[in-house]
């Protein structure tokens, strides 16, 4: 697998405060790589150092196999950036904004014209190309932000929380377009504190907290790495306490408590333990009124590693 970004021992300090503290990352060409972490974890700072927007205090960054500090100008030609804050001119039209960014990246003439049209078509803004940016809805502004970032057809696209403040439909549109860009060969680095977005689009993820990468791998690998299993909430028609005695004895059950009349059951990971509980309850003629199942996810991984929730 070809590494398109290699980061070693990255440190970034703001005066005395260490915002990025010895980060190592290897990002493969063609993947959608997620940087997940709570507010202030150091995701944007990491991204901004990789983009050369912030000077690093220590460590090395290589992109396309080249040392960033020596080949910054050349590398930047093949990199795009969708910043967290909207980065276009409010008083210009969509087409003028994207053309401006295309020119900044050195596009001219027919190539510029075609690339601008493609970027606006891809983001669904071609029909509104003459509209002034400040009159656009939140979702359209986010899409314009993306169009400006991809006009020069970068090989790597950094996206810093590109769905902040958009409605669910626009969010889904943005996530779908990221998948299409990726299928067309673009490597995407995506930061968010929404675990659901990472689960929807990313192949691998680095979880950050206090400037450090505390876990790195595919979503399945990270979930497999923790001991927390499935949690089952079960409401029975009657005989809840009798059910507790039964369930506690079953294989794979690590805890079973009565919380306000609802059974809170913690299970080891395998599916067969859940089947075992159901079979036993039915055999003993317990009547189930309702049940919910909570499988471990990236939030659980974060909780187990740090003792806190992603969005605390
Ligand atoms: N210019 C700055 N000067 C001083 N401290 C800063 C500066 N920028 C960021 N920080 C601090 O560095 C830490 C990491 O910030 P950063 O923006 O990288 O986090 P983040 O994970 O991207 O958070 P968010 O999800 O809120 O964007 C925070 O504690 C933040 O307050």
TrEMBL record:
Residues 5-235 form the ABC transporter domain. The keyword DNA damage does not apply. Gene3D superfamilies: P-loop containing nucleotide triphosphate hydrolases. The keyword Nucleotide-binding applies. SUPFAM superfamilies: P-loop containing nucleoside triphosphate hydrolases. One of its GO terms (molecular function) is ATP binding. It holds the Pfam family ABC_tran. Keywords: ATP-binding, Nucleotide-binding. InterPro entries: AAA+_ATPase, ABC_transporter-like_ATP-bd, ABC_transporter-like_CS, P-loop_NTPase. It comes from the Bacteria. This is ABC transporter ATP-binding protein. The lineage of its organism: Bacteria, Bacillati, Bacillota, Bacilli, Bacillales.
């Amino acid at each position: 697998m070809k590494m398109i970004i290699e980061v070693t021992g990255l440190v970034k300090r703001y005066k005395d405060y260490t915002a990025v503290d010895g980060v190592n990352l290897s990002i493969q060409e063609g993947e959608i790589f997620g940087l997940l972490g709570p507010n202030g974890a150091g995701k944007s700072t990491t991204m901004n150092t990789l983009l050369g927007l912030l000077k690093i205090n220590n460590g090395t960054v290589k992109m396309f196999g080249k040392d960033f500090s020596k080949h910054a100008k050349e590398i930047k030609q093949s990199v795009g950036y969708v910043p967290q804050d909207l980065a276009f001119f409010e008083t210009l039209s969509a087409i003028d904004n994207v053309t401006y960014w295309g020119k900044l990246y050195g596009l001219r003439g027919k190539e510029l014209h075609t690339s601008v049209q493609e970027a606006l078509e891809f983001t669904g803004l071609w029909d509104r190309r003459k509209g002034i940016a400040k009159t656009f809805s939140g979702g359209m502004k986010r899409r314009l932000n993306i169009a400006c970032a991809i006009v020069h057809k970068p090989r790597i696209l950094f996206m810093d929380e590109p769905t902040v403040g958009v409605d669910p439909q626009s969010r889904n549109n943005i996530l779908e377009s990221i998948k299409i860009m990726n299928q067309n060969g673009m490597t995407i680095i995506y930061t968010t504190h929404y675990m659901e977005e990472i689960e929807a689009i990313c192949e691998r993820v680095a979880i950050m907290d206090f400037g450090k990468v505390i876990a790195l791998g595919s979503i399945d690998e990270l979930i497999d790495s923790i001991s927390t299993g499935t949690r089952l909430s079960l409401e029975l028609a009657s005989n809840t306490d009798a059910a507790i005695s039964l369930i506690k004895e079953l294989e794979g059950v690590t805890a079973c408590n009565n919380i306000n009349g609802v059974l809170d059951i913690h299970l080891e990971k395998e599916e067969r333990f859940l089947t075992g509980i159901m079979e036993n309850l039915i055999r003993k003629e317990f009547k189930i009124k309702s049940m919910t199942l909570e499988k471990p996810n990236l939030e659980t991984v974060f909780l187990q590693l740090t003792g806190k929730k992603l969005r605390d």
